[in-house]
Amino acid sequence: MAFFRSVQESGARALLIGRRTLVLLGLPVLTSAYDYWIAADDIAPFNAACEAFDLVPTRTPDEARRTVRYVLENDEHIDVLVARSAGTVEGRLVDQHRRPPIFD
Fold this sequence. Notes:
29% strand; alpha+beta
């Protein structure tokens, strides 16, 4: 929980996505990978929040913006997708200017 709190308090617009999200919601899914979608302008604060947990980015923020993906890793592995916007399955646009809802 300390990791998720650190990300939330960083101010980065970050959204936990993928199967690990279902695990956190209490559904019986086995996976060890974390996946995040973050706003392109929030790479630095997101990485700073992860530094306290010895997670090291595989790309600089500029490289991550160009490739739209990077990894934070140590003994954990976090795939990070970087975008200015993304579409939902319902066709709604999620963009970096709107902060995703926080579930407490």
